């Protein structure tokens, strides 16, 4: 933390995690630091014009909201992949030892009212037109 206090750009963000007992560090399987959110992203994961692979990470205090944001970002970016809509999942290993694979883009059913659908997307569909 002391290292970042002298950086003119980064020191203004340190208060976010400075007094925390723990804070997130994202690193790869070789323990190369990719990001210290919300302070800095690592040079190792910087994007250039030659970048072929992009890691989209999402850090949040609410896992449900993080999953929603991650899934949204991944699906939007995937439209621009070399192989359109191809997404590679990653295994996330938490400090507790638990591991999960993200993003979780599995299908699920949701019940919503017809008026909600119509109002949300600006259409006037009838019940028989909606699955």
UniProtKB/TrEMBL annotation:
<dbReference type="InterPro" id="IPR045060">
    <property type="entry name" value="Phe-tRNA-ligase_IIc_bsu"/>
</dbReference>
<protein>
    <recommendedName>
        <fullName>B3/B4 tRNA-binding domain-containing protein</fullName>
    </recommendedName>
</protein>
<dbReference type="InterPro" id="IPR020825">
    <property type="entry name" value="Phe-tRNA_synthase-like_B3/B4"/>
</dbReference>
<dbReference type="Pfam" id="PF03483">
    <property type="entry name" value="B3_4"/>
</dbReference>
<dbReference type="GO" id="GO:0004826">
    <property type="term" value="F:phenylalanine-tRNA ligase activity"/>
</dbReference>
<dbReference type="GO" id="GO:0003723">
    <property type="term" value="F:RNA binding"/>
</dbReference>
<feature type="domain" description="B3/B4 tRNA-binding">
    <location>
        <begin position="23"/>
        <end position="63"/>
    </location>
</feature>
<dbReference type="InterPro" id="IPR005146">
    <property type="entry name" value="B3/B4_tRNA-bd"/>
</dbReference>
<dbReference type="GO" id="GO:0006432">
    <property type="term" value="P:phenylalanyl-tRNA aminoacylation"/>
</dbReference>
